[in-house]
Amino acid sequence: MEQEFWIERYRTHRIGFHQPDGNPFLRRFADRFPPGSRVLVPLCGKTPDLKFLADRGHEVVGVEFVESAAKAFFQEQGLTAEERTTSVGKVYSSGSIQIFVQDFFHASREELGDVRAVYDRASMIALPPHDRIHYATHLRRLLPRDGLILLILLSFGKERLSGPPFSVTMDEVERHYGDAAIEVLESHVEHAEAPHLEDHQEEVRANVLLISNAGPSA
After folding, report:
1. Range of the domain at 142
2. 27 within domain boundaries
3. To 10 degrees, the CA torsion angle through 160, 162, 168, 172?
4. pLDDT digits (tens, 9 = 90+) for 161-214
5. Domain count, the chain
6. CATH number for the domain harbouring residue 136
7. Dist CA 94 CA 128 (whole Å)
8. Is 71:79 a contact under the CB 8 Å cutoff?
9. Strands lying side by side in the sheet with 148-156
10. Does residue 8 have a pLDDT over 90?
11. Radius of gyration from C-alpha coordinates of the chain
12. Can you tell me the mean pLDDT for 134-142?
C-alpha cells in the first residue's frame, strides 16, 4: 500500500485493525519464541503487543513508517521514549523496545541487530499481492537460518481484491515459504463483526502459523 494511505488512516483514526488489548493468538503462542530473543515486529503501528513481548523478557524491534503511530505507542503505554536519528530515519526507544521509523523494505540486519524471531500479525495481510513476495523474501533475509516467524493470516471465503486486510491463503504461504517448515498452530473462523473485519461480510478464517526459516530438515 502507498504510505500516504496509512498516514491518512492514522490521521483520521480509521484504524479498526488496531487491537488495543493486544492479540490473543500472541498470548497463546508467545512461548514458542526462545527466551530472551530479539523479536522483529514489521509494520508494527502502535500495537501493545510490543510491550507484551518486552515484558516477557524479549528485546523488541518494531518497524513503522508512520511516525505518529510510533510516538503514540510510547505515549499510550506510559513510556518515556528517547529519540535518535540515523542515516535511514528516526528511532524511538524505551528500555528493551525500539521502533525504527522507516520503510520496512529498506531495513537491514545491520540496523535491526541480531533478530532471532518475527511476529507478524498485521503485516503480510496489509500488503497487496504484488508486494507480498518481496516482503517474504526480505523478511527471511533479516533472519538467521534458525529464525522463527509467528505469522497470523486471514483468508476469506471468497477472495477479494480490495483491502486491507487482504486475504492470504495457505497456498500462497507455501509459495513464499515453500522451503521452510510450516506448522499450523491454530485455524478457525473469525467473527465478522470484529473491528478489523468491518468491511468483510463473508466467512473469514484466521490461520496461525509458526515458520522455521531453516526448513524441515533443521
Report:
1. 3-212
2. yes
3. 80
4. 566 788 899 999 999 998 899 999 999 887 554 444 555 456 788 999 999 987
5. 1
6. 3.40.50.150
7. 32
8. no
9. 82-85, 90-94, 97-101, 59-63, 38-42, 117-120, 148-156, 204-212, 181-190
10. no
11. 16
12. 95
